[in-house]
Amino acid sequence: MSWREFYKNRWLYIMLLPGIIYFVIFKYVPMYGIVMAFQDYVPYRGIWESNWVGFKHFERFFSEPQFWMLFRNTFILALYNIIFFFPLPIIVSLMLNEVVTERFKRFVQTLIYVPHFVSWVVVVGVFYMIFTTEGGILNELIFAITGQKIAFLLEPGWFRTMIISQSIWKEVGWGTIIFLAALSGVDTQLYEAARMDGASRWRQLWHITLPAIRSTIIILLILRLGTFLDTGFEQIFLMLTSTNRDVGEVFDTYVYVKGMTQAQYSYSAAVGLFKSVIGLLLVVGANQLAKKCGEEGIY
Amino acid sequence: MKQDRTLGNRLFDYTNHTLLLLLGIVTVLPFIYITAVSFTSPAEVAKGGFILFPKEFSLAAYRYIFSTSTLLNSLWVSIYITVLGTFINLLLTTLMAYPLSRPYLRGRKYIMLGVLFTMLFSGGMIPTYFVVNSLHLTDTLWSLMIPGAISAFNLIVLKNFFQQIPDGLEDAAKIDGCNDVSILFRIVLPLSLPAMATFALFYSVAHWNSFFSAILYINDSDKWPVQVWLREIVILAQSRIGDTSIEEADIQPLTIRMAVIVFSTLPILMVYPFLQKHFAKGALLGSVKG
Predict the structure, then answer these.
(1) Which residue of A178, A201, A265 is in closest CB contact with B9?
(2) How many CA atoms lie within 13 A of B240 on its CB side?
């Protein structure tokens, strides 16, 4: 690049600087900091002076009994998410799409978008207030009917149900936006033609509407697979109690507990790296899969 | 789309409408319930039963909140990081997105690749913590604003948005003697107001709801945002229930816990109706691949 061209665009390069500095310091320096996973990192010595220990922390992690617990918990939550959460925004947007009165449609949309904008703390807090055995409205109701209370929040068996229900309540409405956008692009002439041929509402749905959003569904499913291990860190962190760790602890929360509360920096950095690498492989793999399916992929 | 008024179609419509209405009600009912309880006198709440409208209206819970300096203080912290943080987000994102949207700028591809890679792989919590700590940002409010100053995703969407602005405008402004900075601020930004409003909303909601970065970076409870107190008062207190070693006084009455939820949610719910138009459009903006 010639000096002259650089000078001509000097303002553009100056504008780029703060952003580049930001990405280098807060995104790339931490990537370099990963080397602490291969050290016995001591904060006052820093990365330059700490001792190298090779794969010691990884060996420890893979041989811990917790490894399989974390693996199982992360995997089951991710799987539940895909089975129980993923189809719902599609179903709801198909239902909304069938509504003829624009005002009713907007009214419902306005209501179901709301929880997306509140924090996980509020969502978990609201669930706690409703499901608690100490005066929670749902337990009052169950008690009135059955004479017993259900410890939704303390019983480990309810943990996954609670997590998935919270995700559904918070994000299903918001998740419809992208499908509604895809649906709004469908040519209405197709429906008219189908009706002429005597197609029922169900047949129109099956032969016109669903194929129209097929590629959106596949792309989103693949994106979801790519972030399979991200099980919603804040939410799970908030829902964990001393009683449900056996089913609730996932890779992310384990990194926090080991690193920030027990100061095992190198070990938890190693766990974090393991998760990041698996995550990267999943994204790349899912994208390849998308391209194999004849879709565009995400990059 | 219009459908024939046959019996089957009408049945279909009734069922569909009813189900959607139910869904909408289930979504907002918890908010109504919690708001109603927070305005009800504790005596009435103790009787139990489902409260959708406060029978005995009481401001006791809110009086308690506004008499505690910790909660009011955290309200200011949250407002501060939301306003200043969103400003920083918008400024830095715009400054970086605009040059990257100029097709003739050398090196932009490599910078874009560098940005994209951060979406796929990251150093993780522990190395990031040490970076923030070594910059002496921990225990300052900057730690809640600077480490997340640019969202790679928003940057890419904004860059694509800027690319759609016709080049002719830029050329005309250059002939009139504008440099790139004044083109951005005087011509491009005024044309991008809907996009900026959307990003302002997304960034500010994220700041208002931010909670984990405060847990990670801030020990000083005077600098805790609202969400951290909410967790202390509602969630941690709740999980201590049944723990006999904790004294009763440590756990706030139900009405106060519910009022804290309302207190920390209200600002978002107040701006919601005004911004709804924008974000529906903005979300589309974000979902269109470019």
Answers:
(1) A201
(2) 16
**CA–CA separation, B21 and B13 (whole Å):** 12
A164-220 pLDDT, tens digit per residue, is: 999 999 999 999 988 998 888 888 888 888 888 888 888 888 888 998 888 888 888
Closest CA to A234 of B213, B98, B91, B146: B213
Q: What is the ipTM of this complex?
A: 0.89
Give one DSSP letter per residue of A137-179, joined into a string: HHHHHHHHHHS----TTT-GGGHHHHHHHHHHHHHHHHHHHHH
Phi/psi of residue A40, nearest 5 degrees: -100, 85
Q: Which residues contact A220 (CB under 8 A, 6 or more apart)?
A: A86, A178
CB A251 within 8 A of CB A259: no
Beta-bridge mates of residue A51: A40
Instruction: Count CB atoms within 10 A of the CB of residue B220.
Output: 9
Cα-based distances in Å from B290 to A156, A178, B37 = 44, 15, 47
Check pLDDT > 80 for residue B250: no
Interface of B with A in 181-240 (CB under 8 A): 181, 184, 205, 208-212, 216, 227, 230-231, 234-235, 238-239
CA nearest neighbour of B135 among A35, A259, A45, A25: A25
The Cα–Cα gap between B52 and B44 comes to 13
- Strand segments, DSSP code E, in chain A are 39-40, 51-52
CB atoms within 10 A of CB A152: 22
